[in-house]
Design brief:
This protein has two domains: 9-60; 84-130, no CATH class. Helices cover 34% and strands 15% of the residues. It has helices at 9-18, 27-37, 43-52, 55-60, 123-130, and strands spanning 84-89, 100-106, 112-117. The chain has a three-stranded antiparallel β-sheet with strand order 1-2-3, covered by helices on one side. β2 (100-106) and β3 form a beta hairpin. It starts with 8 loop residues before the first helix and ends with a helix. The relative contact order is 0.10.
């Protein structure tokens, strides 16, 4: 057990976090490596502060946090063809001058329409074949 004011603490922190052995591996892993060998009062806080001020970690590590907010369920459609999804399947071999399929799916019944298109196409052409 080390005293809180030991001059060895900064050396230990640097060795177990910033060296090749430590590999800038974050708070939890640094804590686990140090805790196996030594303990001092406030050790977890000191490690957290050391890692938080590590320039290499701040520059190169990203936060592994969930995005803000919860996923919201989509409302269940009550009528056929009131809620649809559309997508394109591109890069197909040409057949009768068409190499793209516009897929339109009804979200209630999951019934799908497959509409052939020739690439390049415009928004006006897509709207026309959709209608």
């Amino acid at each position: 057990m080390l005293s809180k004011s030991s001059s060895r603490i900064p050396i230990i922190l640097k060795e177990f976090h910033s060296s090749l052995v430590g590999g800038h591996s974050g708070i939890f892993r640094t804590y686990k490596r140090i805790a196996i060998l030594v303990y001092w009062e406030g050790m977890k806080t000191d490690i957290k502060n050391f890692v938080a001020t590590c320039e290499v970690c701040q520059r190169n590590k990203s936060d592994n946090l969930s995005p803000a907010g919860l996923l919201q369920l989509l409302p269940i459609p009550t009528q056929v063809w009131t809620d649809i999804s559309m997508d394109f399947i591109r890069g197909l071999p040409k057949s009768k001058g068409k190499d793209t399929i516009l897929v339109v799916v009804d979200q209630l019944t999951k019934y799908a329409h497959f509409i052939p298109l020739g690439h390049p196409f415009t928004a006006t052409e897509v709207a026309a074949v959709f209608l």
